[in-house]
Amino acid sequence: EEEEEEEEEDGGDEADMPETELQGLLIENAADVVVAVAKLLKANFAPYFPQFMPLLLAGLRPSCQEWCRTMCIGTLAEIITAMGPAVTPAAESLLSGLAIAFNDVSGEVRSNAAFAVGVLFEATGQALVAHCGQVLHALHQHCLHPTEKEMYRASDNAVGAVSRMLLACPGAVPLDMVVPAIMGALPLRVDHDELVPVVKCCAAVLAANPSLITQYTSAVVNAVAQSLLATKTPNPDLVLHAKALFAQLQHHAAATVGPAWASLSDAERNALSTAGVV
After folding, report:
1. Share of the chain above pLDDT 70, in %
2. Which whole-number Å values give the CA distances from 5 to 8, 76, 109, 269, 275, in the listed order?
3. Which of 43, 60, 102, 218 could be 138's S-S partner, Cβ–Cβ 3.0 to 4.6 Å?
4. Which regions of 96-226 does DSSP assign to beta strands (E)?
5. C-beta of residue 184 within 8 angstroms of C-beta of residue 202
6. What is the pLDDT of residue 14?
């Protein structure tokens, strides 16, 4: 009898769930399995992706519940990241579907949309070059420079997305407009991992057009210090790329590095030193 009672207790939570909540839990678990398989197969997931993509894109419709829109777009982002360039044949369809979410009423959905579009450009290179202008406008209009805290993550992911776009399609991104927009959104406030593509972007622009970046040396140094302070464990990719960028800045514009360092607090300098960036 005790065993029967334990079995009933074990299954009690699920049994008491409303049907819609149980369905949502099942869908989320199924999505986790699909992502796990994509991460395992990587490019070899390509033959199976067409079966899942329409279902996930359908979940982005405004009529779907917020949890569904958030989950579907997050799942797509993870699959895109896992597949890499193998997702290119679906690039146009994915961008068309993801763009719907830029003006979603939910800040979390917009945040996921910005991230997903960024990794899509990163994975597909020049495949979406014709859409750069349209996407940049949408990111600036709906995600960058938020006035509400709930949009801070969306802003961080938009900055990361723009940086990834610049790296993927350098000739199609107007540097004189995009670089100031990126710098104006620093330091990041929530999603500090997105500083990695920003730093890589700065390094690429610095190599091609030093003056565009060296005028923002203080902003870049401060952004890295702030992100290191905000995270318990430094992101090794951030440390690696920031260290290389700082070396480039020292080479191209040593006169700007000293004032940038002097403008930092003791805690910020210590964060950079402890992480091994300087």
Report:
1. 91
2. 5, 41, 42, 60, 54
3. 102
4. none
5. no
6. 54
Question: Crossing angle of helices 266-275/217-230, nearest 10°?
Answer: 80
Q: What is the model's pLDDT at position 15? A: 54
* Separation of alpha carbons 249 and 211, rounded Å: 10
pLDDT at 5 > cutoff 80: no
Instruction: Give the chain's length.
Output: 278
Tell me how crowded residue 51 is: count the other CB atoms within 10 A of its CB: 9
Q: What is the pLDDT of residues 126-172, one digit of tens each?
A: 999 999 999 999 999 888 777 788 899 999 999 999 999 999 999 99
Residues 168-213 pLDDT 10s = 999 999 999 999 999 999 999 999 999 999 999 999 999 999 999 9
Do the Cβ atoms of 197 and 160 come closer than 8 Å? yes
Phi then psi dihedrals of residue 249, to 5 deg: -65, -40
What is the rounded CA–CA span in Å between residue 192 and residue 188?
A: 6
Q: Which residue has the tokens 């509400």?
A: 148
- Mean pLDDT in the chain? 92
Q: Are 178 and 133 in contact (CB under 8 A)?
A: no
Burial per residue of 241-260, b for 16 or more beta-carbon CB atoms within 10 angstroms, e otherwise:
bbbebbebbeebbeebbeeb
Two tokens, residue 206: 């610095």
**Are the CB atoms for 50 and 90 separated by under 8 Å?**
yes
Q: Rounded to 5 degrees, what angle do the CA atoms 33, 162, 147 make?
A: 95
Residue 4 has pLDDT above 70, yes or no: no
The 3-state DSSP class for residue 47 equals coil
